[in-house]
Amino acid sequence: MMQATSVQPPKTVRIIPATIDTKAAITQSYRQLQVAAYCRVSTKQDEQLNSYEVQRTHYEERIRTEPKWSLVGIFADKGITGTSMKKRDEFNKMLRLCYKGKIDMIIVKSISRFARNTLDVIKITRKLREINVDVYFEEQGIHSIDPTSEFYITIYGSIAQSESENISANVKWGKAQSAKQGNVPFQCKHFLGYTKNADGEIEIVPEEAEIIREIYERYLSGESLHGIKCYLEAKEIPTPAGCSVWRQETIRSILSNEKYKGDAIINKTYVSDCISKRIKANKGERNKYYIENNHPAIIDAGTFARVQEEIARRSGKPKVKQKGTKTELSRYSSKYALSELLICGECRTPYRRCTWTAKGKRKIVWRCINRLDYGKKYCHHSPSIEESLLQNAVMRAIMQTAKQNIEVLKTLKIHIGMGLTDEVTEDKTLDIQIRIAEIDAEFQKMLKAVSADNADGIDEERITELMNEKQMLTVQLEQYATMRQKRESAKSRLDEIFTILDGLQNHQMKYDDTLVRQIIECVVVESKEKIKVVFIGGTEIEMTL
Fold first, then answer.
1. Taking the CB of the first residue and of the last residue of the chain, which one, N or C, has fewer CB atoms within 10 A?
2. Measured between alpha carbons, how far is 351 from 366 in angstroms, rounded to an integer?
3. Phi-psi region of 375 (alpha: psi -120 to 50; beta: other; left: phi over 0)
């Protein structure tokens, strides 16, 4: 008996309909769509602002004429870049409403108006798709709610970003050409001391210029940045931004800004790229341009040079660790001139001002820091010196130098002059600038001679030769600029010292910290009875205490 064969039934496919939320479907079909529009103009120029108003009117009319659309609002950013999300306040406000369920669809003219950063476009449209918010790009005819739209959004977004990068490159090139021609962008709005007249020319504001000069004078007289800050606030002098509270960084910037001596440096900073727009200090990544005599000077070149030397001197002073502390003392003390000038003759360590009390009486003395902190471990014989005796000896040294014959002053002048008339230091800046201009002209001529059909005609060896020569000449220009600053500083310091010494010849003066800082290099304590006063320029004189 044969066994019956089992027959496999045919394969069938049965569609199971998706579960429909009837209530939600009915609600969606009858309720109005909450629609918003976004528009953006990149600049605040009149033509762009007119375009902005046209866009607003267009979207308001379009949304209001659609019977099933309800206008949530027109969100618009004026004069804002599309490469970054940070400062687009209206755009970010619109997104927050989307996340709260207040917006169903956004209409925007094009992907480039929505964002010029491809990554931002994709990231935002994905987030909005997850919460069923559609973005309709009119020019491209794309709805972001459609999953297949992302491919097209990526392409158009990349084109928009590429346009921004090309614009950025063109702007960068334009700025470089402008800098080569010596055109200096000078913003006077928050710049103390200068303003622009009706013709756009830079002018000095006399009352503000006096503040700048006083800041420079106080710094050279030995006052600290904190001391200058307190003085300006006590006088109720507003900051460049119009604030009542000064920051030490602001004062330091004023003291080191070459614009106050009439010059200007172009390209101190640069924007890293058009997407992040991060501003970086130019440490050689871009060419810098130094423009001399660009505008009227408030501070003469000699004073400016001396201030730069003083800034470097204070920054370069070695710190001294105080006994029993984990931190070091400040490098510079503006309170007492001798805090940085008085040195132990035995161990070369600075002296410190101390208050001693004996038999109920207080006495101010100066003591070697090594001896104070470590006893005789590092310094065996350094003496303690009463402040009054020390100050008297220093002033006697100054008076004695001032009253010496003219030959001594001539010697001092030779030392301080630092070889100002030396023929070796002849300034060839103009010749170098002319040669650099010739190199640039030759570069341009070579570039114009090269065409698509003649790409092999580039003389790479000659280009390398010119580039190396230009680099070497640029270094020489910087060296000459440094030499000029040193000469100006030396002349200014020399004139001031001679004025002081000349005035002291017939006028006895009391001890003065400002005077001491201006003309004394250091004071060496050689013994309990003797000190050596070293003047700026190298002249030395020994005095008994």
1. N
2. 6
3. left
Band of residue 247 on the pLDDT scale cut at 50, 70, 90: very high
HSE, side-chain direction, 13 A CA sphere, residue 156: 21
Task: Work out whether strand 194-196 and strand 202-204 pair parallel, antiparallel, or are unpaired.
Answer: antiparallel
Would you state the pLDDT for residue 418? 45
Say whether 400 sits in a helix, a strand or coil: helix
452 pLDDT band (50/70/90 cuts)? Answer: very low
CB atoms within 10 A of CB 455: 8
d(CA 334, CA 517): 10
**Gap between the Cα atoms of 119 and 92, Å rounded:** 16
Length of the chain: 545
| Strand, coil or helix: 269 | strand
Give the start-end residues of each E strand in 259-376.
264-266, 269-271, 279-281, 289-291, 342-344, 351-358, 361-368
Q: For residue 368, what are the β-bridge partners?
A: 351
Q: Contact at 8 Å (CB) between 439 and 472? A: no
SS3 99: helix
pLDDT grade for 105, boundaries at 50, 70 and 90:
very high
341 CB contacts (<8 Å, ≥6 apart)?
Answer: 516, 517, 520, 521, 522, 523
3-state secondary structure of 368: strand
The DSSP secondary-structure symbol of 68 reads T
